[in-house]
Design a protein that fits this description.
Blueprint (H helix, E strand, L loop, with lengths): L5 H7 L13 H20 L7 H23 L2 H4 L21 H25 L6 H20 L1 H5 L3 H29 L11 H12 L5 H25 L6 H8 L9 H18 L11 E5 L10 E4 L11 E5 L8 H10 L2 H11 L4 H10 L4 H5 L3 H17 L7 H26 L4 H12 L3 H13 L5 H21 L3 H9 L9 H7 L1
Parallel strand pairs: 1-3
Antiparallel strand pairs: 2-3
Length: 525
């Protein structure tokens, strides 16, 4: 797994992989796939008689960590069709945000990374098909610009080590910058004129995606029906609280009203820190889940190279990180170069209700809390390396709803409106994912879904629709949330005596399991 994706190992805290870039040439990945096929055959040939249910589950996870990259190689053909594949793990941020080793050691890792960039970029250009989907190219070019910014912005950090370290860094950094720039330029000049709109997986591959990613066997039509039902519930609830507000309004009107109360540009990060403290205290007072200590989360500005793609994010400690439990909650600030109108729009989009909801998603009881449990969860090596996207994002999305149910925001309609807006966005992602990849939905039609059904602004709707072309698994937010809600409905009273903390601790103790296995795990434990 880490031969093909050493960056994933670094994210988990396995720093023997620092500075490594994989060989993604066709010959190398063909050899990797052949080994994976052999391992899968050996694994499936093992007799199951006498294996406990826990060991059968471990076997399934081992299958999945081989099936997932094989799907990317053979079914979706990401390495041949998606230029973003060669940019996703190129950032140096993992080496700068955590003091897991002396700075000089981390600078050496960055230098090794940069030394491999020219050959890595050349591999991508040589391997990509002549005709690739246009949305993939457009975002890859944007990502390349961010990577170049990242390679420049770390120079002051390197300078603080020594002049010799800086000289070595610059020696490999400058060719790396040229290589990334050339990659983006050739995408625009060679691939974009021949670009296609052939991004859809099709029904058969989409159904397989559900299986290899999450062990979901239900037909994707059932997934679509569940997403539509959740969207209708959320729209009805938003309209109900809007009509009951004083003065009464409609859903979009209530969202506009919430936007009026927002922090200043200078006070945005301080407000986020206040909400981190508030949500942590709320989880404790309401006994929603155990917070493993030490639990320390700092709030920082999103690194400049990532701001075009992120409003807020969590950089959690990996399960093997030895530098401690600290989480880093990134919040994207106002750009002082923006005109005043744009700055005000950004702050309105980060109003108090939204920022509190985002904090619940990213920190407590969302991503950061889940990763604290992930670090401490009992289990074998496979359970500390397997991460289900639908569980990780589904838990964080569920966390938003959970704290509203328990009274965070003091029952203010604006607080619930912010949560419902995000829920509608995630419902639309699921609907659009199925539509784009199995029903012939076009990008303009997908954009309209986000605008009409999710109340998204046009620019947001367009970006979300484009994301669906290359990230069909962004159905995971709603899929995971619905799976956790169903598990709670089924087991909370009968297995946990109505204790939310006991239920949540048990679920979080599984690590990050495929959501198709969640109910079975709860029945076993």
């Amino acid at each position: 797994m880490f031969t093909l994706a050493p960056q994933a190992a670094v994210g988990l805290g396995l720093h023997q992989y620092d500075g490594q870039l994989p060989d993604l040439s066709r010959d190398a990945t063909d050899r990797w796939a052949s080994r994976a096929d052999t391992l899968l055959r050996r694994l499936r040939d093992l007799p199951t008689d006498g294996l406990s249910a826990d060991r059968r589950y471990d076997r399934t996870l081992l299958e999945m960590i081989l099936e997932n990259p094989l799907f990317d190689l053979r079914d979706s053909r990401d390495y041949d069709q998606n230029p973003m594949t060669y940019l996703g793990g190129m950032s140096l941020t993992a080496y700068t945000v955590r003091g897991y080793a002396p700075l000089s050691v981390r600078v050496e890792a960055m230098t090794r990374h940069l030394a491999g960039v020219p050959a890595y970029m050349a591999t991508g250009l040589n391997r990509l098909d002549p005709e690739v989907p246009a949305p993939f190219i457009q975002l890859a070019v944007s990502m390349a610009q961010g990577i170049q910014s990242n390679y420049r912005e770390v120079e002051p950090t390197v300078r603080s080590v020594s002049q010799a370290a800086l000289d070595r860094f610059r020696e490999v950094r400058d060719p790396a910058l040229v290589a990334v720039q050339d990659y983006a330029k050739r995408l625009e000049t060679e691939r974009l004129p021949r670009a296609t709109n052939a991004f859809a997986l099709g029904p058969e591959r989409y159904q397989k995606l559900l299986w290899v990613r999450e062990r979901v066997q239900a037909p994707f039509a059932d997934l679509l029906a569940a997403g539509r039902a959740d969207l209708e519930r959320n729209r009805a609830r938003l309209e109900a609280i809007a009509s009951a507000a004083q003065p009464p309004t409609d859903g979009p009107g209530l969202l506009r009203r919430a936007a009026q109360s927002h922090p200043t540009a200078e006070g945005l990060l301080a407000r986020a820190r206040d909400f981190v403290d508030e949500t942590k205290l709320f989880v404790r007072e309401k006994e929603l889940a155990t917070i493993p200590e030490p639990a320390v989360c700092r709030v920082e500005e999103t690194p400049a190279h990532h701001r075009a793609l992120s409003t807020a994010s969590m950089n959690p400690p990996g399960p093997f990180d030895t530098a401690g439990e600290e989480g880093i909650y990134f919040v994207t600030p106002v750009d002082p170069a923006w005109p005043p109108k744009t700055q005000e729009e950004w702050l309105r989009s980060f109003n108090d209700s939204v920022l509190r909801n985002v904090t619940a998603h990213e920190v407590y009881p969302g991503h950061y809390l889940q990763f604290l449990h992930f670090r401490k969860s009992a289990g074998r090596l496979i359970r500390k390396t397997f991460l289900s996207n639908a569980f990780v994002e589904g838990w964080a999305h569920y966390a938003e709803q959970l704290v509203l149910e328990q009274g965070l925001g003091s029952g203010a309609p604006e607080a619930e409106a912010a949560q419902l807006y995000d829920a509608l966005l995630r419902d639309c992602r699921l609907i659009v994912s199925v539509g784009l990849h199995t029903q012939g939905m076009t990008l303009p039609e997908a954009t309209t879904v986000f605008e009409r059904e999710g109340y998204s602004e046009p620019i947001v709707a367009q970006r979300e629709a484009e994301r669906g072309t290359f990230d069909p698994a962004y159905f995971g937010y709603t899929l995971g949330k619905l799976a956790i809600l169903e598990a709670r409905r089924k087991h909370l009273s009968t297995r946990f005596g109505g204790s939310l903390r006991a239920f949540h601790d048990r679920v979080l103790g599984f690590g990050a399991p495929p959501v198709g296995f969640l109910d079975e795990l709860l029945q076993l434990h």
